[in-house]
Design brief:
Length: about 350
């Protein structure tokens, strides 16, 4: 019996409000151009992201008003609970399970504060057991889809036969800010969307796609690359360095280092499945991983259709790769605050 964790099901979901990139740019221009002289210089960011559409938990008009912590948190709790229930119900249906058959829930989210945590808030509505183990994880940011999957897989492997539910949910749009006019805030407004993904994992009783191994690398002295500042109005996005340049220089050696630790080599990987931070990051990943330009096709499609949803995004890419048919071995990769690279190796039996 193979006790590595298998992917039993995967589901994705987005909130109901769809925004076109041109629509967001016009709203940003109306709000910011008079107050921020460099706006026209930065407006090209909206076209260069490769994004067509994004989704948000509130209608676009909501984002045009000044919002503080209480309003943002109310919007987060309302929107996150609805999205959590929807994506979990889909994942459970695809796994042919009921909520009371879930033994452990790992919830990854870095875009809002909830105490009690999200899985506790929806437990009654979904029907989780009173003795379900809950593992909420905050602060992983864009790396959360891969790091969270790694955590959930180890919990499944530790108790073969139990069902582990992993949920990555981010409402990035709620951090949109126009009280502080910074390049980082305009980059965030051009890039981020809302979404969720849910995975059911089980070890010990089959499954075509298995979590083979995982690894991470935390670079020293890189705390300023990406993260949140906690401001009076809400979270403030931190982008202090050029992430594509960092990826080009550092991601290749980091992946090789992680692969060596799990006794694999670059040539053992049939497909890379990456968190697409944006078009420039995708190009940087292709260079860093010695892939031909255009190789990361699902990544480009997901960023075009949804924008960067932080942690769930790589699972949207995985969903498309699974639908097309995975090769024998894939490597999921994501980068996030820390600054951290996270990798998970998937072994697929056709």
């Amino acid at each position: 019996m193979n006790n590595t964790a298998a992917l039993v099901s995967l589901a994705t979901s987005v909130p109901p409000h769809q925004f076109h990139q041109k629509q967001i740019l016009e709203c940003a221009r109306d709000l910011l151009a008079d107050r921020y002289p460099q706006f026209d210089t930065l407006a090209s960011l909206f076209a260069n992201t490769g994004i067509r559409n994004r989704y948000g938990v509130k209608p676009i008009e909501w984002y045009l008003e000044q919002r503080g912590w209480p309003e943002r948190t109310r919007a987060f709790l309302e929107g996150a609970e609805i999205l959590f229930v929807d994506v979990v119900q889909q994942a459970l249906a695809r796994a042919d399970l009921c909520a009371d058959e879930i033994d452990t829930i790992v919830t990854v989210c870095s875009t809002g504060i909830a105490t009690p945590t999200l899985e506790a808030r929806v437990a009654g509505k979904l029907g989780f057991r009173a003795d379900v183990s809950r593992v909420p994880v905050f602060g992983l940011g864009c790396a959360g889809g891969v790091s969270g999957l790694s955590i959930a897989s180890r919990l499944a492997q530790a108790r073969p036969g139990t069902n582990v539910l992993f949920v990555a949910l981010e409402l990035c749009t709620l951090a949109v800010r126009h009280d502080e006019l910074t390049k980082a805030n305009i980059v965030a407004a051009s890039l981020f969307g809302d979404g969720a993904a849910a995975v059911v994992l089980r070890a010990g009783d089959g499954g075509a796609t298995r979590i083979e191994a995982s690894g991470e690398k935390l670079w020293p002295d890189t705390l300023d690359i990406m993260g949140w500042s906690v401001d009076p109005e809400g979270f403030g996005v931190v982008f202090q360095r050029t992430i594509p340049d960092f990826v080009t220089e550092n991601m290749g050696p980091a992946v090789n280092e992680i692969l060596a630790r799990i006794q694999l080599e670059h040539d053992d990987i049939d497909r890379f499945i990456c968190h697409p931070g944006g078009t420039k990051v995708i190009l940087a990943l292709e260079r860093a991983l010695s892939l031909g330009q255009g190789t990361l096709d699902h990544e480009r499609e997901v960023i075009a259709d949804y924008g960067n949803m932080s942690a769930p995004t790589v699972l949207f890419v995985l969903e498309r790769a699974l639908a097309q048919g995975l090769p024998s071995r894939s490597l999921l990769t994501a980068l996030g605050p820390g600054f951290t690279a996270s990798c998970v190796s998937l072994r697929h039996a056709a």
